[in-house]
Amino acid sequence: MDNITTSQQAQRRAKQIELDSRMRNVAASIQKKFGYSAPMLSGILGNIHVETGNTFDYKQKQNKGPGEGLFQFDFHKPNYKKYLKRKKLKDSVDSQVGYVHDSIYGDEQEHLGYGNAEDLRELFAKSNDPIEISDAFEKIFLRPNEKKSHSDRRREASRMYSLAFTPAQ
Fold first, then answer.
1. In contact, 92 and 58? CB cutoff 8 Å
2. Could you tell me if residue 143 is inside a domain?
3. CA 20 to 30 Å from 69, out of 3, 5, 35, 46?
4. 133 within a domain of the structure (yes/no)
5. What's the number of domains the chain is made of?
6. pLDDT digit of tens for each residue in the chain (169 aa)?
C-alpha cells in the first residue's frame, strides 16, 4: 500500500475528478456533433486518450513535436487555423471536434480526401466494433508516424471506453 498522506490522497482524487470532467466534456462534444454511437465514441475517445497522454486537454502540446490539441493536429494545423478564422471560432474542445466532424461530414472533406471521409462515415454508421473504428480513425484521420502510432494503446483505450459505454447484459 502507498505511504501517502491524506492531503496527497485528496490531491490525487481532485486530479482524477478533473480528468474525468474533461473526458466527459470531450465525450459530450463528440456526441453533440456526431450523434451517439458507443463504438464510434469509444474509438475516437481511445485515440484522444493516446494523443493527449490521457489528459483530454484541448491545449495539449506534443512532446518534442508540432502536434497540438485533442487530436494533436500537425498536418491538420494550418487547415484548422483557417477553419477557426473562416467560422469565426476560438480554439476549444467544441471547435476541435467540429473541425474533425466537418472533415468527415462537412465542408472540410478535401483535407482527408472525399473517399477517405466517405469511408469513415460508412464505418461510423455500420460498425459495432470500437477497435475497427479506432484503427480507421487513426489511419485515415490522424495519420501518425508509423513508428510512434501506438496502435496497441489506442485499441486498449478504445476497449476500455467501450466497456464504460456499453450496457451490461
1. yes
2. yes
3. 35
4. yes
5. 1
6. 567 888 888 888 877 778 888 999 999 999 999 999 999 999 999 999 999 999 999 999 988 788 899 999 999 999 999 999 999 999 999 999 999 999 999 999 998 988 999 999 999 999 999 999 999 999 999 998 777 789 999 999 999 999 887 665 5
Q: Give the predicted TM-score (pTM) of the model.
A: 0.89
Domain containing residue 160: CATH number: 1.10.530.10
Closest listed residue to residue 165, CA positions, set 12, 72, 13, 30: 30
Range of the domain at 86: 6-165
